[in-house]
What does this fold into?
Amino acid sequence: MPKKKGYKNETQFYKIPVVGEDDVLSEEIEVRKWNIVENQLMAANMGLSCCVFEEGEYRLIDNVNGTYSVMIVGTGQHPSLVGILNGGYVHSKKPIVWQGLKKNVEYHLYITYTQNLYEKGDSFSTAMKRTRVDSTSTSLYLARVDCRQTPPIVDLKPDGKIYSHNIAVHANDDTNAHGVKMYQDELVILKRLTFDHDTKGTVVLYNEEGTGELNNALKAKKVVKDAISGGVDGVLVPMQATKVHSVQVEESVSGKPTFDLGNTVVQYPKEKDQPIIIYNDGSEGVPIRVFVLYE
It folds into this structure.
């Protein structure tokens, strides 16, 4: 009885052939096996052939001869660079260096694919371009260096740089999960949108309770009213409103302006349907136009 073609063992899910006892290596089976492996690697990388996962510290070095060097170095336990280039894993603990950057020139720094990269993660080349070219499958854009400034400026987050995250880390990462800049055609906020300012605290723009700044703007209505200035005694502008958000007052002219209105002060209503009172330190009897944003 002829021996069954194939190996005795195989993996559980993808059925990748595995040599067993007394099996003879088969060129045909080995090709089939590694095609299965390569196909799954391609599927895993599909749409993400070139990106940065993690990078070290960028250092600018003045060579004292009219040129500069830029170096990426790892810090602590972190490598210099981790990413994907042409579908291959990039991992370098060694410093990455670009040399010969001249004054009065803007440079764009890249790493480029070599044939040994798939075998060794730090087998890539470095490249500098004077005109920016977005990352391609074989060229990963890392930084912009403006040597027209003194000292030169190293831009670590230039437009066109592609970031991604380790999937396991991404699942628990809520800070810049898609890089420092994101372009999104549509964004739906279900519960809360906030803006954090370093010096002025947190501003709630939108929340499901309907009390954020953006909620107010979305609910607000606009009305334009005409009146005659009352000077320091003020003029009442009737309003049918639950809340008045803002009031803008201008002199209303059909010919030449008088510039007699002076400074204006608005007294906002404290209760529903109360009028607005507008005071001015100029003349009485000046036609005014009042723009009101209200609920």
